[in-house]
Write a structure and sequence with these properties.
The complex is a heterodimer of chains A (about 525) and B (about 350).
Chain A: H1 2-13, H2 17-30, H3 35-43, H4 54-64, H5 67-77, H6 80-87, H7 100-109, H8 115-124, H9 128-138, H10 148-157, H11 165-172, H12 180-186, E1 208-209, H13 212-215, E2 223-229, E3 232-239, E4 242-247, H14 258-262, E5 268-278, E6 281-282, H15 285-289, H16 299-304, E7 307-317, E8 320-321, H17 327-341, E9 346-348, E10 351-352, H18 357-366, E11 372-379, E12 393-397, E13 401-412, E14 421-429, E15 435-441, H19 447-459, E16 461-465, E17 468-471, E18 476-481, E19 483-486, E20 494-497, E21 500-504, H20 516-520, H21 524-530
Parallel strand pairs in A: 1-12, 7-9
Antiparallel strand pairs in A: 2-10, 2-11, 3-4, 3-5, 5-6, 5-7, 7-8, 11-12, 13-14, 13-17, 13-18, 14-15, 16-17, 18-21, 19-20
Chain B: E1 8-11, E2 14-17, E3 22-24, E4 32-34, E5 49-52, H1 54-64, E6 72-75, E7 82-84, E8 87-93, E9 101-107, E10 110-114, E11 136-141, H2 153-166, E12 172-175, H3 181-191, E13 198-200, H4 202-213, E14 221-223, E15 236-239, E16 256-260, H5 267-272, E17 277-279, H6 287-297, E18 301-307, H7 309-317, E19 322-325
Parallel strand pairs in B: 3-4, 4-5, 5-6, 10-11, 11-18, 12-15, 12-16, 13-14, 13-15, 16-17, 18-19
Antiparallel strand pairs in B: 1-2, 2-3, 7-8, 8-9, 9-10
Helix pairs in contact in B: 1-4
The chains are: A alpha+beta (about 525), B alpha/beta (about 350).
Chain lengths: ~525, ~350
């Protein structure tokens, strides 16, 4: 538990991706089985304990600490588990801190009534950082800030390039903690684990953004076009071993979309877009967001935000791996399969007919529906290859919308940017002359522009709130964004998709920046009611 | 035997010993001052006569200049008795920073001890705390909550060196205040076998020189400001807490930002400072040390100068010790951020 607690403590404070990978790699390389496998399961969220509730921690604290001292301490620290971890008055003991394996096995087998005594004994034998890790673990509140993908990259790094992260991905969902076979393979002591019939995730094929210089060399005849939907890309996996819905990054999101999983009465692996669809109409991304990042789902949410799939590719038909086939052949297989199986809640994402790239360009410019981000171009002869192979698939987003907004607040960044004011909140003028914040952007600028903005913020600060500075209303930023949608969560009533700084408009006086009503005219979920005004 | 409350009083300037005619750590300029240690909230400029340990006076002169450090300065050795008016006074080490002292006073058979800031953990850069039995013990309470239990400093230094081994290409920059923490970190690093040059922010160099003059060896120190970025790869750099995530730090190579302070025990404190490697190293007594010290000096009454007095008083009251909160103002760890330069305990 000591190494695991140390790992958690460092991960919690480490902003950099590479540093996180290095910390994980060291942990996996230096800890023994089965502890490291259980640690891996804990950081990727595969271990979920419900045996201990926060109430148990409260009771333990009440039995061992003075209530007034506890109240003052809790008030100061602000986190129950951390307060108890820090102030726990250990009884002298010769016991060593428990290993991760011991903790997990005990929690699975011990009668509930014995838990308080067992946990108290563990706390007595441990240092504060171990106590904190323990309490967070047993109450299911680790929140490490590590994606499953990052852990897989760290695992692959243990092999110094022999195994790629995507290779780990392909076997991952067929494995279970403590992953002994996985580590044996990574360390060259065992064969690649065979997922057999397990519903494993296959790393997806990705597209490059289509830049103007790429466009001229494209031959329209080589490519097929589809809409680029504004939902989330998913992989539907149904095998004799089970049914799963995966996000693009390989997270299992089956629990949040039970109606989709219910409809997967077939054996296939499919690639498609998850959307909220009402009576055949695709709803804006904001609606889908209501369903994301949840473990379960209520009947009301199923009714109010019904999910559906637009299918665009097929990786396996039955147990046959058709990824090596060209796109056109896979598409034909997908269409035939769809016509035969007729799965509920799943429609084909249509192919768009076009004669030339110019033709397509016009189609793209006209595509202003809320649910469409632009176009996808896929070579008709492209095999399905994990990763981002060159020249095969292109995403061609429609041109962003822009507004000229006024910089209102700037916040310090994290990690490499911690000495820079790099997160900018910008606002637009309301009719009554008030400036209201409409969004926040922290990319889009060059290093030189960042240095310039940072200097400007420091020289034009009017107030400070911790890491945030309020600045004079004198700097105009041209903000680009993909879409504007109504939002009850934002003071201005509108939320921007992917806002970024397009240009710094030092030439423009703040008073001439855009008005809120200009932005409201671009809002898409309102446009639906007001007719096609936006297009 | 007069109770100390009749002759040791709280005035706007600070604690005043009436029959001795002097203030202890006054927060504004006075005629006669006794100074426990050289941190700027305790050692203010402009007093006429200043009495302190030789180490404290040397540090005060380096920080404040010869005149502002006291028009007349008198150094007192440990345990050396001095008659001030009707009071006998002496100093014993407090273990906080170089020269830091407790002030012991005796008046007509009644004895009070003002501890100043102190700690009980051994520190290679200063003399260890000596408990003095007394009738009233005046203590600080900076970390007087049971959540503050400082781990052994060697353990924290080992974490720093382990991080350096894992990220050998990155600069490890450690935030620490200029007087005491900086030199203690250097001494702890040397003790742990780190013999590479240690790089310093300009604001830390002058007091390191005073420590060396006072006989505390610190090994090879270099100016970080003058070093090329390549030289700072893998180096350990010390800087004031305010500089570690600010523009000054841009000269460093992909820095791992560490901060050495007792406040780092609480995660939210570390997070809000943008710290990647919090090091729990404090120059103040932790909860256990505060309680143990109160028991050791055996005073029936304890006065708390500043800090989180309610928890300490609550706890000693249960052991039959009378507690009194003086609520002295002007000592900077009242600043709840705790990380203005010198309160970065």
């Amino acid at each position: 538990m000591i190494a695991f607690a140390d790992l958690l403590e460092r991960l919690v404070f480490t902003p950099g991706r590479n540093a996180k990978i290095a910390l994980l790699r060291r942990y996996f390389a230096s800890e023994p089985d089965p502890d490291r496998g259980i640690g891996l399961a804990a950081v990727t969220g595969e271990l979920a304990f419900t045996a201990a509730k926060p109430g148990l921690i409260r009771e333990l604290a009440a039995a061992r600490t003075d209530p007034e001292l506890f109240a003052w301490s809790y008030d100061y620290v602000g986190d129950l588990a951390e307060t108890v971890a820090l102030m726990w008055p250990g009884k002298p003991t010769n016991a060593a801190p428990p290993s991760l394996t011991e903790v997990v096995e005990t929690l699975e087998t011990a009668p509930k009534s014995e838990l308080p005594g067992i946990v108290a004994g563990w706390l007595d034998a441990s240092e504060p950082s171990v106590r904190l890790a323990l309490l967070k673990l047993i109450t299911g509140a680790l929140r490490v800030g590590v994606s499953a993908r990052l852990a897989k990259v760290a695992l692959a790094e243990m092999t110094d390039g022999r195994v790629a992260p995507d290779d780990v991905e392909e076997v991952w969902h067929g494995l279970a903690p403590p992953y002994a076979a996985l580590f044996a393979w990574l360390e060259g002591r065992g064969v690649r684990p065979d997922p057999a019939d397990a519903p494993v995730f296959r790393p997806p094929m990705l597209a490059h953004p289509l830049e103007p210089q790429d466009r001229v060399s494209l031959d329209a005849r080589d490519y097929r076009a589809e809409w680029k939907w504004d939902g989330i890309r998913v992989q539907l996996v149904a095998t004799p071993g089970g049914k799963r819905l995966y996000s693009r990054s390989g997270d299992d999101i089956s629990g949040a979309f039970p109606e989709i999983v219910d409809a997967m009465n077939f054996e296939a692996v499919l690639d498609g877009e998850l959307l909220v669809i009402r009576e055949g109409e695709v709803a804006p991304f904001a609606d889908l967001q209501q369903r994301l990042n949840r473990k379960g789902v209520t009947a009301k949410m199923l009714r109010d935000f019904p999910a559906g799939i637009r299918l665009y590719d097929m990786l396996f038909e039955g147990s046959e791996d058709i990824r090596p086939l060209p796109f056109d052949a896979r598409r034909a297989r997908l269409e035939a399969w769809h016509a035969r199986v007729r799965p509920r809640l799943m429609a084909l994402s249509p192919l768009i007919a076009f004669d030339s790239i110019e033709d397509l360009s016009a189609i793209r410019d006209d595509a202003r529906a809320a649910s469409i981000e632009g176009l996808m171009l896929k070579r008709g002869d492209s095999a399905y290859v994990p990763g981002r192979p060159k020249g095969q698939w292109w995403k061609w987003k429609r041109d962003p919308l822009t507004i000229d907004a006024v910089l209102m607040y700037a916040q310090r960044g994290h990690g490499k940017r911690s000495s820079f004011y790099s997160d900018y909140t910008f606002g637009l003028w309301r009719e009554d002359g008030e400036l209201v914040p409409v969004g926040k952007a922290y990319f889009g600028f060059t290093d030189a522009e960042l240095a310039m903005l940072d200097r400007w913020v420091r020289n034009h600060t009017t107030a400070r709130f911790g890491p945030v500075r309020e600045v004079e209303r004198a700097m105009v930023l041209e903000v680009a964004f993909d879409a504007a949608q109504l939002s009850t969560r934002h003071k201005s009533g509108v939320a921007l998709r992917f806002p970024r700084i397009a240009r710094i408009r030092t030439d423009k006086p703040a008073a001439e920046a855009d008005r809120l009503e200009t932005l409201m005219r671009l809002v898409e979920n309102r446009a639906a009611e007001a007719g096609a005004a936006v297009a | 035997m007069p109770h100390p409350k009749t002759w040791l009083k709280v005035c706007p300037q600070g604690l005043y010993c009436e029959p001795g005619g002097f203030f202890i750590d006054p927060t504004r300029a006075v005629d006669r001052a006794v100074i426990t240690h050289a941190h700027s909230d305790h050692a203010r400029p402009g007093h006429r006569a200043v009495l302190a340990s030789a180490g404290t006076l040397a540090l005060m002169r380096a920080r404040l200049g010869e005149g502002p450090a006291g028009l007349t300065q008198q150094a007192l050795g440990w345990g050396e008795r001095l008659r001030m008016g009707e009071v006998t006074l002496w100093l014993e080490p407090a273990g906080h920073v170089l020269g830091s002292a407790q002030v012991a006073m005796e008046y007509r058979g009644s004895r009070a001890v003002v501890s100043g800031d102190y700690k009980r953990t051994p520190d290679p850069t200063c003399d260890p705390f000596v408990p003095i039995p007394c009738d009233v013990f005046v203590t600080e309470a900076t970390f007087a909550l049971p959540v503050f239990r400082h781990p052994p400093p060697d353990h924290e230094i080992a974490r720093l060196l382990a991080s350096r081994a894992l990220f050998p290409e990155r600069t490890h920059v450690v935030g620490c205040y200029a007087l005491g923490k900086c030199q203690r970190l250097i001494a702890l690093l040397r003790g742990a076998g780190w013999h590479e040059p240690i790089y310093l922010h300009g604001a830390l160099a002058a007091l390191c020189a005073v420590y060396e003059q006072q006989g505390v060896a610190l090994g090879e120190l270099r100016a970080a400001t003058a070093a090329a970025k390549d030289q700072l790869k893998g180096a350990i750099v010390l800087a004031p807490p305010g500089a570690i995530t600010d523009r000054w730090a841009r000269r460093l190579a992909e820095p791992v930002v560490a901060l050495a302070s007792g406040w780092m025990r609480v995660r939210q404190r570390a997070r809000s400072r943008g710290v990647e490697l919090p090091l729990v190293i404090s120059d103040h007594a932790d909860w256990d040390e505060l309680n143990a010290t109160v028991d050791e000096v055996g005073a029936p009454e304890v006065w708390v100068t500043h800090g989180r007095e309610e928890a300490l008083i609550h706890c000693i009251t249960q052991r039959g010790v009378r507690g009194r909160a003086l609520r002295l103002v002007g000592y900077s760890d009242e600043d709840d951020e705790g990380l203005s330069e010198e309160a970065a305990a």
